[in-house]
Design a protein that fits this description.
The complex is a heterodimer. Chain A is mostly helical. Chain A has eight helices and no strands. In chain B, helix 1 runs antiparallel to helix 3, helix 4 crosses helix 5 and helix 4 runs parallel beside helix 8. Classes of the chains: A mainly alpha, B mainly alpha.
């Protein structure tokens, strides 16, 4: 049997579907609890609904990027695995690397050799074992990190506002720096995306331009993309 | 204020921790589903050595991130966000941007109870949108890919760098003094890694860039704050 027949079989769809169902269930109960608690501590309905709408608009662009990754993954590991891995724990770059390592370990070189059943199975195992480290460590530590952070802050409330922004600048600084030093079209995209954001964020403070708060990031990221593609 | 703390710490967090743990461990179990199907239904089981070989390759390439990412993203997304982000994946390219936009629109500060709650709402929506788009995509399958012109597919490669640039600037505007420091550290480390200064470390040590930039920026931010306020 061709491995893709197995990869696209009903039992594989069911196994993947269950995992995706879990992610949706978690999102639902967390969102419901958060919404109710938000109301109880004084967040207004309009505030939260506007935030929800903004996240929805913002999520479309990155999801399209993930979709193109899904389509490239689909060719090698079939629909169910591609669908599951990109909605659950995984990310595009990581999965493609895992498939490569997994197939290689049973002597199949992707791109030159054709995928076998065994190589596919090993790729599946590699994707799983390579990624559960994240979910295990996060699940073990999420509730304890609060205490670690509190101890570190020693009651200095102002620091609580500084550290998240510093962490964010550090992590997105490191994500963007690879594209900045590449000096290619990615560099143009990163700089343009940043510049549009620098214009949009102050503009969105004006009451007349409130809609920009929700659309700002989407405009910046598609703007950066289009400029890089055209130049 | 105290009542707010009571609701958040006495009711919200215990709920989130309980369900976060249950869904997290279920997630670990369920990720083995497809491997189990292959072994039980189709009797395909790779030899342990092959699994181990591939696992070791993966662990040396990304293993450090298992620890670095949950720690570096925690201050931004909080307890609920940590459970959610690491169950659903695609963190830097989707979850964090969705959470950050939600916080900016609702005008709440990251790190506060309000900030955590709004970030969780933003992430939940991103889970929904992402799952919806991917489900349509996988069902429509490769026919979509075949119909899209090649230059459109190429253009999508620029979306991610553009997103990273835009998110960086969004936070840079919140702390103008800190942004050049963060970017400076990140750029210096990126160049050093590209020049091969850290080649004695296993894998390609790109995690050093994240580690150095996140904790270097936090350390300098704390030092600057202490100097300004004169606290020890």
């Amino acid at each position: 049997m061709d491995y893709l027949q197995i990869a696209n079989s009903a039992p594989m769809w069911i196994a993947s579907g269950l995992a995706i169902g879990l992610v949706l269930f978690q999102a639902y109960i967390f969102a419901k609890k958060s919404y109710n608690t938000g109301k109880a501590i004084g967040l207004s309905d309009t505030q939260m609904k506007s935030a929800l709408k903004g996240s929805m608009i913002t999520s479309i662009g990155p999801s399209l990027v993930i979709l193109t990754g899904l389509l490239s993954l689909l060719v090698t590991v079939g629909g169910p695995m591609a669908w599951m891995r990109l909605s659950f724990i995984g990310s595009v770059m990581f999965e493609l690397m895992a498939v490569g390592f997994g197939a290689e370990a049973v002597g199949v070189n992707l791109g030159t050799d054709s995928m076998t059943q065994l190589a596919f199975a090993n790729a599946v195992w590699t994707m799983i074992l390579g990624s559960i480290g994240w979910i295990i460590f996060a699940t073990l530590t999420a509730d304890k990190m609060d205490r670690v952070q509190d101890r570190f802050l020693k009651g200095d409330k102002a620091l609580l506002k500084i550290i998240p922004v510093a962490a964010m600048l550090g992590s997105f600084g490191s994500l963007v720096s690879g594209h900045l030093v590449a000096l290619n079209k990615n560099t143009i995209a990163a700089i343009t995306g940043g510049l549009i954001m620098a214009i949009v964020v102050p503009l969105a403070e004006k009451d007349k331009l409130k809609w920009l708060r929700e659309w700002g990031l989407a405009i910046a990221l598609f703007g950066g993309m289009i400029v890089a593609a055209i130049l | 204020m105290t009542q707010k703390r009571d609701v958040f710490e006495g009711d919200y967090l215990p709920f989130i921790v309980r369900y976060g743990k249950v869904t997290g461990w279920l997630g670990v179990l369920m990720s083995f589903g497809p491997a189990l199907v292959l072994a039980v239904v189709y009797r395909i089981m790779p030899p342990t050595t092959a699994i181990l070989t591939a696992f070791i390759a993966m662990a040396s390439a990304v293993g450090v991130n298992w620890f670095v990412e949950p720690i570096s993203y925690f201050p931004i997304v909080g307890v609920a966000g940590t459970y959610m982000a690491f169950t659903s994946g695609n963190i830097s390219n989707l979850r964090i941007p969705a959470a950050a936009v939600a916080q900016r629109i609702a005008r709440v500060e990251p790190g506060t109870p309000e900030g955590n709650i709004v970030a969780t709402l933003g992430m939940a929506v991103s889970v929904l949108v992402n799952t919806l788009i991917l489900t349509i995509g996988v069902l429509a399958g490769s026919t979509i890919l075949a119909r899209l012109p090649a230059n459109v597919i190429d253009a999508f490669n620029y979306l991610l760098p553009s997103l990273f640039g835009a998110i960086f600037v969004q936070f840079a505007l919140m702390k103008l003094k800190l942004a050049p420091i963060a970017l400076g550290i990140a750029l210096a480390l990126t160049l050093a890694v590209n020049l091969g200064w850290f080649d004695f470390l296993p894998g390609r040590p790109t995690y050093l860039i994240t580690l150095g930039a996140v904790f270097g920026t936090i350390a300098l931010a704390v030092a600057m704050h202490k100097r300004e306020t004169g606290r020890p």
